[in-house]
Amino acid sequence: MLGKLTGALGLFLFVADTAMMGLCFLAAYFAKKHLVMADPALDLEPYLALLAAEAPFVLSVLALSGIYSSRTMLAGLGLQARAILKATLLAFVVFVLISFYVQLFSYSRAIFTLFFAFLPAGLLLPRLALLAANRVFGRPPAGVRRLLVFGDPAHLPDLAGRFASSPYCRFEFLGTAGEADPPRPEDLDRIVQGQVDGVVVDFHFAKAEAIAEVVNRAEKEGVSVYMTERTLPVTMLRFAEETVGGLPLVALRPLGLPPLGRVVKRLLDTAIAAAGLILLALPMLFAALLIRLTSRGPVLFAQRRVGLDGREFTMYKFRTMRMDAEASTGPVWAQPNDARCTGVGRLLRATNFDELPQLWNVLRGEMSLVGPRPERPEFVRRFKAEIDRYPHKHWVKPGITGWAQVHGWRGTTSLDERIRHDLWYIEHWSLWLDLKILLMTPLLGRKMAEAPAPSPRPSSDGAGSEAALPAAAGPAERPADTA
User: Fold this and answer.
1) What residues contact residue 329 under an 8 Å CB cut-off, 6+ apart?
2) Does the predicted model carry a pTM greater than 0.85?
3) Which of 383, 387, 402, 470 is the most exposed, having the fewest neighbouring CB atoms within 10 Å of its CB?
């Protein structure tokens, strides 16, 4: 709930802070040139080059200080101002120490001092602008989140006040219940129908069994469950923690990627996908020509898949089957040596070259290079009812390759194991883990796990779990690539 709503907010503030850093630096330069110990001959060009090197450093310090965390962004403006001041002071001290050793003070000390003096005010401006826009237009920048709240009736007014004080998001209480009240059928229906963004529990932990059914249903449907400090025994291990209006909340489920992590992952995806489409343009053109000359129908096959937050998108791949492959059967999985494959299609599937058009999905922002493989909507509806925590895989973008795939969990292997690996990836994501998976894909893609008998559920890797790399795994059971 909170992790998702702060994703776009964190990205906006990150971009706005980058722009404000540039403006603060220019303000410091012109102040030094014309006002403070004026130096009309001061040249701007070498300082712009230094700014390009300094900006990533300062942004990294801000991020590591928690400026873009949900805890800070959803807190009051006073807490944000204190966090910005502390982070700016830390960046200034570290920068001075670095400058001492690499002798950067051949540049004007006044410019850097003025820059760090202007920076806190500059960083506060975008946040003030968001609050002003909220008051003028009446629409919070992070949107509206709908909550079911269970807790002591005496504490509910304070709880409502804490949530109401959130500066960038409006929370609506769809329903509240006390400790002695049983879960209402309409509350369960709201969770199943996707009308609830989060469940907040404010019981003492010894009494929380009263709403076990609601918590379990929320967990099954992928709805965030948050508990206040009163709910948890002090011996519990650390969980993902958020703060709304000064109220600490503990998340009982993965929150997806942190805001800055989404930015970094998106930059990596865009750079590699763009480079891949350029470098592989000629081989892809040759594959398209072979498909066109050897079989009837379009070169590309487009199919609806389920991605981030359960939203559907159109996934592309090279067509490898006859046009009427599912005319009589409906949606089914392909089998090894499937007779419906064309001659060229078998070659493309064996090398995973048929997946390369998904680089376009990555460039469009619908997929990532690394993530859980996407499924067709028909199968998602089925798996949600059969597999615990299955909806949690939609808390990140689907990928061309993934943690499950490089460990051999695809094809006729256990679907439960694939989901377990997908959830482990979401909970332990880091940039280094993504790079590790990308390196493992061509090296380990051919090594299938010694799988037990196929799962009683039909298993699918979402039109090819293997990465779209020519050196990746051999043929495996996949959904047919025609509708």
Assistant:
1) none
2) no
3) 470
* Residue ranges covered by each domain of the chain: 2-137, 144-251, 259-444
pLDDT at 230: 62
Which one has a higher pLDDT value, 448 or 231?
A: 231
d(CA 279, CA 281): 6
pLDDT in tens, 425-436: 987 888 888 988
Phi, psi of 353 (to 5 degrees): -70, -20
CA distances from 166 to 154, 225, 243, 318 (A): 21, 18, 9, 48
- 2.130.10.10, 3.40.50.2300, 3.40.50.2000, 3.30.1360.70: which CATH number matches 144-251? 3.40.50.2300
Which residues make Cβ contacts (< 8 Å) with residue 6, sequence separation at least 6? 70, 73, 74, 142, 259
Neighbours of 182 (CB within 10 A): 11
User: What does the pLDDT average to over 413-438?
Assistant: 85
- Model confidence over 299-309: pLDDT tens digits? 898 999 999 98
pLDDT level of residue 468 (50, 70, 90 thresholds): very low
Residue 387 to residue 375: CA distance in whole angstroms: 14
Strands 240-244 and 247-251: antiparallel
Name the percent of the chain lying above pLDDT 90: 15
